Fold this sequence. Notes:
Helix content: 10-25%
Distance between the termini: 47 Å
Number of strands: 20
Number of helices: 13
Structural class: alpha/beta
Shape: globular
Radius of gyration: 24 Å
Amino acid sequence: MSMERRRLLTTALGTAAVAAVPFGPAAAASPAARSASWHTVPHRGIRPDDPEGRAPLANPRRGFRYEMSYNARDLTSPWPNEQDHSPDVTETLDLLEREYGPGANLTQLYFYLWDFATSTIPQSALDNIERVFRGLRSKGYAAVLRFVYDDGVRENRRYTVQDIQRHIGQLAPLVARNSDVVAVWQAGFLGTWGEWHGSYYRHETYPDAVTAIMTTLVEALPPGLHTQVRYAEKRDMITNRAILDRVGFHNDYVTLGEGQWDYYVPGNPGWPRYLEVSPTRMMDGEMPWDKGQSSDPYAWSTVIPGIAAARRLQTLRFDSLSLVHNATVTLPGWKAAELTERQATEAQLPVSDGYFRDRAGRSVARTQFEYLRDHLGYRVEVRESRHDPSAVRRRGRLPVEVDVVNRGFAAPKHPRPVRLVLLDAAGRTVASAGTGADWRAWLPQGRAETGDDHAPPAPTTVRAELVVPPGTRGPHRIGLALPDPDFPGRGRAVRCANASVPWVDGVNVLAEVRLGGR
């Protein structure tokens, strides 16, 4: 077992459970005692010529993202003459979709608290923030969330550690109420754009200040959510080690080491920390603005190679990446550049079942953009499902097993129930059972830029017995559900990357079964 795999499993399952988790083909092995009465249904991945083959698979807390900024005071933009902005967040998202194209279901969401940096945030501003969250929910988006004081336009504010802690206390209940539309709550607050450089009192340079702020923030996080800082050196300043399991990273200058500000490269002092932290904590990134978007000296106007970018993002287990940055140089380059199955395999990148093959088995090239869009974060495929309808007649229970595999760049990083369900012909739930599985242990392929094993990830089997109510008759359907753990009614469920798998109210329908009553 690689060190990354052991770390990931220890984090997700606890140290005592690691030794009991099977690896390799045995992880999906069927029980030796299975009888001939079991029905097996094979499943395959999404192919380019499937009806859903070229469309983005929108799943929670992963993938490409947009970016938007609001003054909390009145929901205006901090940037003069910004075009892609409306006080109505649904209109802002419409503008972003038109300008940058589809493919995102996340957005970086900045709230600027410049007006209240040294005072209490008024209820009117908190109501504005909540209104934006409601708009995100109505459009099916979630936020990479950052609260900021200094915007680089107005004079930097003179906030203290106590001001930041007071504001976190005000914001925490609001974020908790809306955590179904929050992918990650970034550390923010300090310095220009919340990037932890240049704050008036230089709090980001003092371990005691950093530790106090981060402890308050982590303690305010809703269950399962993470926070992020930009630099390994800042995370290493935190002396309260107990909070570090909730602290990941955001790289705000992805250039693969070119230029001055991408520190996420082999040989950088922080590289070992990024490798250590990224398998189990949220990772977000953005490229610099390009010179068609900005006149700033840090703007970047050389196409960042797509295959090399995929290798770096996969190695560091990135969950999300901006679709807005470098949008007139690199992103068009990725959309124009083909990626073949052979190139992906030679680059030690994961290859989803049928992803580069049409339904006739012929090779089909994808674009680099498509590949990144589809593989950031997790990508869960069902390989096979099995059930034994004869057991319903004997003892009123329907045993079900499902083999799943993760073809994405990263393991899932938020806890989520894994349930098997029985639906009637109208889509109503007749029976449901937890599997006890922790989907954070659905491990991806080894990291491309390390000496990991790069073999395709082994399937994992989840199983449960569904208690079938007496008198249940007729055609029914068996499904796999991965609902939001805290908001099962309104939160977003996970859809598997499989062709011709019906999606019924958050359930991946995997098999049909006819029940005869008992």
